[in-house]
Every structure is written in C-alpha cells, then in structure tokens.
C-alpha cells in the first residue's frame, strides 16, 4: 500500500493541491484551480477581499481531481498539510459562519490605523516586543472593522487566518498557530505569548483569538462532513499549517540561520532565517516566528515582500495580448531587449501599500518612455527588471539588518521560469540562485509528514527534493545591471 501526504496551498491567485509519495518524496498527482487567476474584489481603491467559500470550493475541486488521477485507496493518506496566503482576516460568528468577505494580505485600508498605533504605543515598544509596526496586518484590519463596521464586529466569536479557516472546514477545530499569531502582529516576542498590550490598545478581546498549536502537530482529524465533500476517508489527521512565505522557505529546506528563500508569484519575496529577533527600525522588512521556532532553539523568519510582482506581469500580459500571448512568448520578447530596457524603467508598486516603502501607496509608474524607440518588448523587460529592482531595494534593507545574502533558493516556478528575470535577479543582487523542483503545496505535504511523525527529522522529509540548476553572477553583466538599478532607484526617489 502506498503512503501518501496531501498538501493544500491556498493563495490569492489560485488553490493548489498536491499528493506526495511520502517514501520517495515525488509528486503522485497535482491540481490547480481556477484555470485563470482567482478574483480579488476591490470595492474601494486600496481594498482587496475574497470570499473564504471560494477557497473551500477550490479545495473540493482540486481534491476530486487528485483522487481521480491517483485512485486513492482507504488507508493510503497519512496526513494533510496547509499553506496559505498570510495576514488575511476571516471573521466567524458563534455558528462558525463567515461574517464578511476576508480582508486579504494586500488590502491597504488599515495602514493609517497601524501607523497611528506605531506612534501611540511607542516605536521602541512595538519593535522590541512585536518586532514590527502593527502596520497593515491582521490586528489592524480587525480594528478597522471595529471602527467602520461595528455591527459586524459585534458578531465576531473568533477570527482566523485563511489557513485556519480551511483547517476548520476540514476538521471542525478552531485553532491557529504561533507563526500565525506573529504574522497577525498579535505576538509579544519577549513574553512568548499574545500581546495583551496590543489587544488593549485596539480594544480587542482575547477571546476572539483561537488557541495556538505548533506548525508541526496534530491539529484535528478530517470530519465526516468534510470527508463526504472531499471523497476522502474520515479521521485523516491535519498535522501542519503555515503561512505561504514561511512554508515556501520550508519547502526549500530553509530552516537554519543564514539560509534564504525567494518567491515571485503574485507577490515577490525574500525570506531569511535568523536565530535572533532582529527588526528593521522603519518596519519595511518584517520578522515573524518561523515554522521550526522553539523557545529553547529560536528561529525567526525575516520577510521582504513586494506586492506588485506577478500581478504586474499578468497586467502587462492582458495589456499586450491577453490569451493570444503566452508567458513563454513574453519572456522571449523581453530577451530581445538589452539590459536596462534602453532607458525605460517600471516602478512596480501598484498592488496596494508597499511595506518596503513604509506602507505608502506609491502606485506603478512607467518612466523614461520614448515613443520613437520603445515597444512592447521594452515594456516587458522593464517590468521584469523593475520587479527585481524592487526586490534589490529590499535586499539592501535586509543587509543592513545583518542578513548574509550570498545564496538564495527558489522553486523553478512563476517568474523564475523567465531567463531574463533569473539573470537580472542574480546579477543585480550578486547572489547565487539555486532552483529546486518544489512549490508550496509540496512543502505543505512534507510538513504534514513531519507533523504525523512519519519523518523523524527535516532531513528525512526532503527526500526527493532536487536542485534543478543554479546560476551565478557573471562579471560581464554585473555593471550593466548595477546601472539599470541606479537609474530605477533614482527615479523611485524622485516620485
């Protein structure tokens, strides 16, 4: 009989489900829904919402697809792991019904609330105890609801992050994790517990927070109701949950101090592991509890995030051709243009307030456009170089925090499929880039294997993880990319 693990990855663009062979670490089946990008509703400028029922719908659809592809038999699935889009707010009433659409990670409505809290609670207190400004994170979003939708706030029994909601739909258990509480900015690091001072300041009752469990742990079993909907046998344990960026780092076996991971999906990120609770004084880069954090052996995840990443690339796709042009064709066209896009620069900050810009709504800007010279190829390359430039801007902040940025790991997916993007990333930042055959759903499945006890160690959990290729900076390209970055940075500062 096969020994299988299921990994769910709930993103803001899609839901992916992967069935992993626990013995070999290879993918047995995988499915993604919807076929196009998931809708993000924006009732007002700067708002971003999704209906949690949509995530659950796509969990059901993708589970059906992997069941059909793999012909899963009773007793084969050992555990389920969950990765999810971070910082979202899901509010439940006493009947466990969703009160309003989820205010998701890239929503900007609570920026002013978080900035005010940073000043009034005291910057030194926030940085020393929360490691971050309350910013635009989950706690600030809940305070926004309290101020602007008091009737909805009064109905709240529990709040959850997106992955907590999916875990509840699977098991009926209302839980969260320490990593989740830290990403919501509810966690007091020196006290190693929930920040009562933050709750008091925002006027939030402690009772709305679910109990926390470790990322790798028994977190409930598949309920009979979920079993009937998914076509899986009941009682399968859920044994792992983590936000998408800690999980993406985990999927690449980034667990020890000094190791780094990067992603370039809807958002672009660099995630580094530190043994110390470091912070950026301006909270442009954020620190959370990593998945393998323990009080006696601490691990902190330092996250750089650029909201306007894959969403910019998909916007350009719609602009220049939509369904008539593929991403591979776009990448080939971008490669026809020299480094620096012949003076054209794209500032990619068009997907809400950007943390590395101190939570300002900078918007996207195309600068240096020459109507006699530039065409769609230049726009394509400038878009990719602009995203890398934004990541480089954040890289420099991380260097100032003491992180060693020499080798970075990534899954060979999303924008790392583009040769132009990879080349710009490696040479602009002067790092070695290692690409692996993995993604967030595989990471969630491996996490479930640790949580069930099937794997005795992380080393065992990464059987089957293979490096596809690595890329090193080239001396002949470094100066050209440095000049492209300096032009981009100068234009950013002049906005």
| Share of residues in helices | 25-40%
Spatial order of the strands in the main sheet?
Answer: 3-2-1-5-13
Helix-strand category: alpha+beta
How many β-strand stretches? 22
Largest sheet: 5 strands, mixed
Count, helices? 17
Shape: globular
The gist of it:
37% of the residues lie in helices and 21% in strands. The chain is built from 17 helices and 22 strands.
Notable features of this structure?
5-stranded mixed β-sheet; single chain; alpha+beta; 495 residues; 4-stranded antiparallel β-sheet; globular; 17 helices
Walk me through this protein's architecture:
The N and C termini lie far apart (about 60 Å). By secondary structure, this protein is an alpha+beta fold. Helices cover about 35% and strands about 20% of the residues. It is globular. It is built from 17 helices and 22 strands. It has a five-stranded mixed β-sheet with strand order 3-2-1-5-13, sandwiched between helices. A four-stranded antiparallel β-sheet has the order 14-15-17-16. Strands 20-21-22 form a three-stranded mixed β-sheet, with helices on one face. The chain has helices spanning about 50-70, 110-120, 125-130, 140-150, 150-155, 160-170, 180-185, 195-200, 225-230, 245-250, 310-320, 325-335, 375-400, 420-430, 440-450, 460, 475-495; strands at about 5-10, 15-20, 25-35, 50, 75-85, 90, 100-105, 160, 175, 185-190, 195, 210-215, 240-245, 260-265, 270-275, 285-290, 300-305, 345-350, 365, 405-410, 430-435, 465-470.
